[in-house]
Amino acid sequence: MARYPEDDPAPPPALKGRIVAGFSLALVIALSVYLLMSASRAGNEAFASLWFLAVLPAYLCALICYVGDPAGTRSSNFYLSVPPILVGLVIIGSAAFLGEGIICLVMLSPIWLICGLIGAFTVRRMRRRRNDAARFHASLLFLPLFAGSIESQMPVPHETVTLTRSVIVHASPSEIWPYAVSNAHIGNNEGRWTFSQSVLGLPRPRATVLDRPGVGGERTAYWSEGIDFQERVTDWQTGRRLAWRFAFTNSTLQHHTDEHIAPDGPLLKIDTGDYRLTPLPDGTTRLTLRTNYVAMTHVNFYARWWGELLLGDIQDNVLAVVKQRAEARHATAG
To answer: In whole angstroms, what is the distance from residue 80 CA to residue 71 CA?
Structure first.
């Protein structure tokens, strides 16, 4: 095939067809993998696997570049453009035809882009070195299967994570305590702006109802989108500490966040939480909210980063509601 200058952005018609064929093949493979994992018993675990998050996008982008640039004559701009185009097509297709939620797609995008770039430029480097094409083709064909087999033999680490947020409230612990315990009719104007809830659309709290005070009581948290779950009180120190254990008795939270990751499943267990109220010398109170969860994946480092963002935003918003209501009560009493 004739070579053409690297600064020429317009490929010949035959090469355009190869590029389209490369993307089509990659999308068919991605859809096949999705359907196979969805039908598998271990499907949700597979969606959080290292091979799906890292190896698969690298493989697909490498395949597109391999098919789309057979002579290795395309410029680096071609290899840079392949991963974002593929990720964009996957996001649009998943949202429009597969019903995937925005949280799942947002979590998927950064790591797919990075690993896709690694795969694309690995092909470019190997092509420039004139490695044997047949051997390279075979390695592309069996890479995902090999990576999946290796990962399935690796033990899954269990990592306990404590997520902590604090806020200074201009009120006494006795004024804050009722709102740490329960809140009715939380309005749309209460709380604060967060990326997860204001931009990504994560549900917001609407009310927290306690059936009876003291250890053994049960708080039911109601969120928007019809979500509810329970918090069973394990420690009750009036004005000082309130602790609970989460109980997710239905799938409403999972349905509106990420169908593949249950809050009490094989990948993630949101376990316990507590409020601590610490009076300060200037008459204010430090209100601290902690959430303890267990991450059980081969990509805990990545899951922990998203937990810090998503759960951290939820904590910030809850603390803002308690702060606003307690300070309003303090101002009225004053």
So the answer is: 17
